[in-house]
Amino acid sequence: MTSSVYRRVVLKLSGESLEGERASGISPEVLERLAGELAEVHRRGVQVAVVVGGGNIFRGVSESARRMDRVIADHMGMLATVINALALGDALRKQDVSVRVMSARPVPGVVEGFDRQAAIRHLDAERVVVLAAGTGNPFFTTDTAAVLRALELGADAVLKATRVDGVFSADPERDPAAVKFDRLTYEEVIERRLRVMDLTAFTLAREGRLPVVVFDLAPVGAIGRAAAGQSSGTLIQGSES
To answer: CATH number for the domain including 39?
Structure first.
């Protein structure tokens, strides 16, 4: 059994990661696989909180959203994350994992509101915590929510799941000459203007000296390897680490 270098982590999942081969929505097969991998990490004793996006249901950058009031569109995106969080919570329960879904925008009778102390108690009680509705405020991304929650919950790292295996000098899906970085400091990311996450999220991570692991979610077992410090992706941390 692989041991973990982290005691508590926040995993950031995009809504698109739940689509699988679908154009939108939730793939039952992908949901089952992700829940199984999270269950395995949980059984190794790692405390896991998951921040999930909503882009598979409502994309804030879509043509329809651009015609909307930004605040309204962001609220719709937050509600989409609640749907995804409920689905992931259900999938985890089917893996015999104790789980709590918490939302920055509570829906009474459906999901409880986020409370920092309650979330920490859930983690200490060996429950996976699935976090929805981002920060609860418009104009902030779920990347920012993941870093914010990680700092609030005293997590050891943010595990950012993506479609590529780490951080590259350019978009590897467009530039075949793009170079991958195994390790970076916060300063190097800023100097090179690398696209890791939005600037607000990254600034929070840097100020909190919070390590960020960027990894490809597609390979089987990727979440477990990231939690164990064995990811082939990119580790971003302070120069003194």
So the answer is: 3.40.1160.10
The verdict on residue 3 lying in a domain is: no
Helical residues (DSSP H) of the chain, grouped into ranges: 28-43, 63-66, 70-93, 116-124, 142-153, 186-192, 199-207, 222-227
Would 2 be classed as within a structural domain? no
Run of H or E including 138? none
232 burial type by CB count under 10 A (0-12 exposed, 13-18 middle, 19+ buried): middle
Kindly report whether the global pTM for this prediction surpasses the value 0.90: yes
CA angle 19/21/23 to nearest 5° reads 65
Count Cα atoms within 13 angstroms, Cβ side, for 133: 16
Provide the token pair at 76. 């719709």
The predicted-structure confidence for 133-156, as pLDDT tens digits, reads as follows: 999 999 999 999 999 999 999 999
Instruction: Write out the residue range of the structural domain in which residue 212 sits.
Output: 8-237
Cα radius of gyration (the chain): 17
Distance CA 181, CA 237 (A): 13
CA distance 170 to 183: 16
Count of the separate structural domains present in the chain: 1
